[in-house]
Structures are given as C-alpha cells and as structure tokens.
Amino acid sequence: MMKQFKSQLRGSNRLKEGDKRRVIDETQRRRRHRKIMELLESDNYQDDPHADLVMSKKVPKFEDNLEQRTTRTKKKERTAEYYQTKFRKNFQQLVDEDRIEADIAGRVSYVDVAAEESNLPPRHFCAVCGFFGHYSCVACGMRYCSIKCMETHMDTRCLKWTA
Amino acid sequence: MSHMDSSLSDEDLDEGQSEVKRIRYDSKIYNVSRRFEKHQRPRRTRLASRDSHSFHVKESNLQGLIFDNGAHTIKINYSFEEEPKIIPNCIMKAKSERKRLFIGSQIDECRDCSGLFYLIPSERGYITKWDVQKPIWDFVLSKNVCPVNNYPVIMTQPLFNFKSIQDCIDEIFFEEYEVSSMFRLNPTDLAVLQYHKEIGAKPPCIIVDSGYSFTHVIPYLEGKKYLKGVRRINVGGKLLTNHLKDIISYRQYHVMEETFVINQVKEDTCYVSQDFKSDLKAAELPPSKNHIIRNYVLPDFNNIRRGYIQDRDQKDEIAENCQILRLNNERFTVPEILFHPSDIGIKSIGIAEAVCKSIFSCPLSFQKDLAKNIVCIGGSTKFDGFRDRLFNEVRSMIPASWEVNVYQPSDPITYNWMGGKVLLKDPEFKSKLVTKQEYEECGMSAIQEKFNQWSIIDIEETVQSKPKIEPVSYIDHLKKYDVFGKGIVSEESSENNEKKNENPEESRKCEEEIDVSSKNDGEEKLNLTDDDKFKLP
Ligand SMILES: [Zn+2]
Ligand SMILES: [Zn+2]
User: Fold this and answer.
1) Which chain B residue lies closest to A99 (C-alpha atoms)?
2) Where is the composition biased (Polar residues) (chain A) (predicted)?
C-alpha cells in the first residue's frame, strides 16, 4: 500500500514536469487520432525501394515479365497509364459523386450503409502494454495502466504525433 | 492418469518433470487437433441431406470464367474446374531484386520477401489505381494463368461499386479484352447462391463478409439484397495487420516495413477470444503460468521461408539463430477490433451488433429466418473462435425463443467463387449476361443498370403486400356468405387492418373497401354499442 503511494507521488512529480510540456487540446487530439487511422489504411510505411531507378530510367516495366495475352486485335491494347489518366479519381471524389447520384435516384448510397456508433461504453487500453488502462495522460489523453507504462509513454509516443 | 501424474510434478525429480511436460504438451496438441476437427466438420448435415430432393429445374451447362476480384486476392478459374486459383491482387517490389517487379503470384519466385513494397490497386476496397490494376489483370488473363478464351465472364465488384470504376471495367473488358459477354455482381450475391445450393433451400439469410478492406453485413430476402439492412464496418484484414505491425514495432521490433511477414504472424497466431476479460487476465501472468503467450520464429528467407510458432518445450536448433517474436495479448486484442472497433477509437458497432441491427431493420416476417441463417465469409472470419464468438454474442442479443445459427463454410475465401458455378447452372442466367454487342449498342449506363439492380429487393411493395392479402380476402369471404349478417364484423376487421398498415396508401385502399361494405348496410351500425354487437345473431 505504502509502496503504491510512493510511486504515485513519484508519478505526480512526473506530471508536474509534464506540465511544462505542451498539453494538446481536443481538436489536436482528434487530428492525431485521424492521423493514426489514416496510417492504419496505408499500403506501405517505407519508401519505394526502386525509387532511385526512376531517374536513371531503369525502372522495370510491367510488360517485361508478362506473357503475351491472347488479344485478338493487337491495336486495341492500351497502356495502363491510359486508363489511369482517363479514369483518375481519388476515393473521396468517388464517394462524393456517389452521394450526389444516390440523392437524385433516391437510392441508398455508400455513406448511408456505414455502421452506426455503438451504445456500449468504450473500453480503454494502455497505449504501451495493451492491458486495461485506467488512467489517461494529462498531456495527450492517451491511456496507461501503471507508472511504469506512463513513463514509457512520456518518453516515447506522448507528443510524437503532435507535429 | 493425468491427475495422478500432475501431483507427481511437485516432486523435483528431473525425470518426473520432463514427463509431465510432455503430457501437458500432448494434451495441448490434442485440443488443437480436436478444434481443427470441429472446424472441418460440416455443421449442417441436417440441411445438407435435403440437397437431393430440391432444385428440380433443369440445370444449364453453360460454362464461364469466374473472376472474384477481391482487394487482397483474386479468385479465378473456369467453372468446370474444381476450385479457383488464388492470386495476390497487387504488384510487389523487393529490396533484393531491383531488375523486376512481382505481379500477383509471381511473388512465389521472390527469394527474399522482407521489406516488400506493395502497389495495391484499391483504396478501401474500390479500384482507384488503374495503372496497378490493369497489369495485374493482364497477368491473370495471360496465356499461362486464365485466358478468357471467349468464355462468358462472371466478375465480382464491391457493393455500390462507383460508376466511373464500372465505366473503366467495361472499357477494359469489352473493348480491350474483347470479352463476348459479361456479368458483374457482388461477391455476397454469389455466397447466397452457394449457401442456398448447399442447404437445398432458399431461406432469407445474412451474409457477414469480413475481408481485407472492410466488413459488410448484408441481409438477403427472397435471394435479394435488402439495402436498408446493410451495415458496413470499416475494419478488415488490412487494418488488423497494420495495427499488429504498429504494436509489435512499439513493443518489440521495428516491423513497419514487414507487411508480408506480419500478415503471416497474424494468420498463424491470432484468435478471437471467447472471454476477453479472462484472457486479458491470463495474459498478465508470468510466462511460466501464461497459456496465451507464444514465441514466433520469424523467417530469415535463408533457412526459414515461412515463420512458425515455436514449440514451447522443444527449442529447435534453427530457432537459436533466428529472431523470435513474443506474442501475448496481441494474439486476441487484434482480432477483437472486429467485435469492438471502439477499442482503437473507431466509432462503430462491432460485427455481432451489426448482425443484430441488420436483422431488426428487416421486415418483421423475415427476422426469425435471418437469425437462423447467418453465413460468414471472407479471410477475416478465419480466425479461430470467430464463429463461436459471433454465435454467442448474437445469441445474447436475440429473443431466447428464436433459433440462432452461424454457419462458416470450410473455405470462406473461395466460397463466393463456388457460387459462380451455381449461377452458371441457373437456366435463366444466360439471358442476364451482357454481350459485347449490347455494350456497343446500349452503352455503359444501360448495361450497368442490368448489373446493379438485378439483386436488390424492392422494399416497400414486397413488405407491405403481405398484410394486404389477408384482410381483403376475409372481407370478400364475409360478404359472400354473410355469416354474421350485415357486415358489422367487416367493419371491425377493417379497424384492425388500419392498425396493421403503416403505409398510408395501403390504409386508403382498405378504407375504400369499408366504403363499399358500409354502403350496403346503412349507417345505423356505426352507433351500435358493444352490448348490441354481442346480441347480434
Ligand atoms: Zn501498461
Ligand atoms: Zn501522453
């Protein structure tokens, strides 16, 4: 019991120290969360390993290692870039167009079928170790479970995302 | 036997201890294989037996190329083949081989799959990068894989596939690949066909499709999608793998660049917990008492091409020189996101809640059957424990008197492709195919109408027509026989009808019916008291 109290004290000292750091407001926290969600959708976290080849025009071509397809009329073959240029649209554009179309046609759209928010209370996990985290970081709002994890959090991720 | 032996283990005899360890180890193997058995056994033997005496309609022997274009893998083959070829729907670049790209299954030729760089044609399941998708399709339809050879093509596309994406598909397939005829539909449409074929009946059902990009819950009534009941959760295999990469990188090794390897780690070690809180407690225990923890031997692409879970007691030789990943609560907190997206701050209901919401947003008369016919497909339903957890959670949210059934096909990844075979056997199907000529004459919009409307149920009419039939025939019946005399009862029943009918048009029709009957009988009946009614003959 005593031990726990001591460590809590130590923790609050640590928090005072933390006060000197920037505290992130709600808008920034939301932006940070959005950033994390975007990262969870990304295809790669590293740079293209062949990026340096682009300049030297040594980029391997798709056609190089493709067997001839059985197209009857050779002249109809088009490059992949042709389609990319003609139909280039990003995901958000596609969703917006769909919404407008759906409005006109009176149909259900892509955005309409997104599942609703849950009525169940959210559970909170320690951002460091993944077990239940009952305390939240004063600076950034992330959760932690113990003094040990709080310290790790402070030293690592706490303000990492706030650029 | 095991009881006696385990008491022996308290003695510090070397021999005795290793004996106990071996026994424990065996029992674990036993559990695993039993689970495996359970998983493999067809769960619907009762219904499968019905298969023989249904589907009397003469089957068509039309053959075609079935092309399930998933965002993660393409499942493709001719309908006369047993099963599809599974081809990664991406182009990969390896650090070690700078002179080439790996398209689709060419990745099997890549010696070192560490740090693979991915070109993926889809964003959130919808094709946006045509300069990536086109070469993959070229590969898939090339001579050595699956050339079209003039076969009709059945191709899948995600729900609400956007118009400009469909335009591009049409142009590529009809103009460049010159397919003679084509049909496009959602992968879940095919799953329903396969399910109906397997059980030999066509009940309403709910398809839970948890794939790479997202999870869809789609109710099918009378074989068609009921859009008001559809739910999409933006959690799929891609997000789970990326999340696993993130937490491993934070807690152990930097693996953010190792999508290929960590995806295998996910497939090999993750499971859906049946009791989340108690598993989390168990994972807090020290390694010696912790039954969750696993050591995973990472591939080095030299001696080990694919990673594996290390034997808990037999530290094998190769493993000594290898990197070992320790997995503990990650094993079940990652798939848990499917059931609780809010665990990582995604404001959405989980799969089980979505299934229940979907059931209850369907017309009442279908709800019981839907609960009885829940089908899980897609790679993210393959986690151990997925089916049981979904069943238990749905069970707890559905009235106790209703039967709940969650069916998981033995292969939830190729299930849709199998449904393509069923579609081709349908004698009506040939007329649904869009030919190259139609494409040229009618244009994209007209043919896309054909693809996108065929499997959607027209909600209001179908739902409301059910109560309509009964009251009308009842009134007719009474008028004909005049059982209770003077049609008072018909007025009473029409009152009930009005309560039943929420559709204003519907109740107006009923009112017209009443008008007819009240004209015949005069107005004084309206003033009758309950007692008076009772006295009537
Ligand atoms: Zn912690
Ligand atoms: Zn913080």
Assistant:
1) B162
2) 1-11
B85 sits in which H/E element:
strand B85-88
Of A62, A118, A129, the CB nearest to B101: A62
Give yes or no for residue B136 having a pLDDT over 90. yes
pLDDT for B311: 82
CA distances to A60, B369, B465, B494 from B500, in Å? 68, 21, 12, 10
Question: pTM for the whole thing?
Answer: 0.78
Per residue in B303-336, pLDDT tens? 888 999 988 776 666 666 789 999 999 999 999 9
Distance CA B85, CA B88 (A): 10
B394 alpha carbon to ligand 1 midpoint, in Å?
Answer: 31
Contact B393, B387 (CB under 8 A): no
* Number of residues that this document lists for chain B: 537
Query: Between chains, do B115 and A81 touch, taking CB under 8 Å as contact?
Result: no
Helix, strand and coil content of chain A, in percent to the nearest 5, comes to 50, 5, 45
CB-hemisphere CA count at 13 Å for A63?
6
User: For residues B457 and B225, what is the distance between their CA atoms, to the nearest angstrom?
Assistant: 6
Distance A37 CA to ligand 2 centre (A): 18
At B139, list the tokens.
């590969």
Tell me: the pLDDT tens digits for B342-386?
999 999 999 999 999 999 999 999 999 999 999 999 999 999 999
pLDDT greater than 80 at residue B461: no
Does the beta carbon of B329 lie under 8 angstroms from any beta carbon of chain A?
A: yes
Query: Cα distance from A29 to chain B (closest Cα, Å)?
Result: 12
Domain boundaries, chain B: 10-48, 66-222+412-452, 237-338, 474-535
- Domain spanning B237-338: which CATH class is it, in words? alpha beta
Cβ burial B358-382 (10 Å sphere, 16+ → b, else e): bbeebbeebbbbbbbbbbbbbbbbb
3 state DSSP class of B235: coil
Taking the C-alpha atoms of residue B272 and residue B335, their distance in angstroms, rounded to an integer, is 6
Count other C-beta atoms under 10 Å from residue B40's C-beta: 8
Query: Looking at the complex, does the CB of residue A106 fall below 8 Å from at least one CB of chain B?
Result: no
CA distance A16 to chain B (A): 26
Closest CA to B406 of B430, B383, B381, B380: B381
Tell me which CATH homologous superfamily contains domain B66-222+412-452: ATPase, nucleotide binding domain (3.30.420.40)
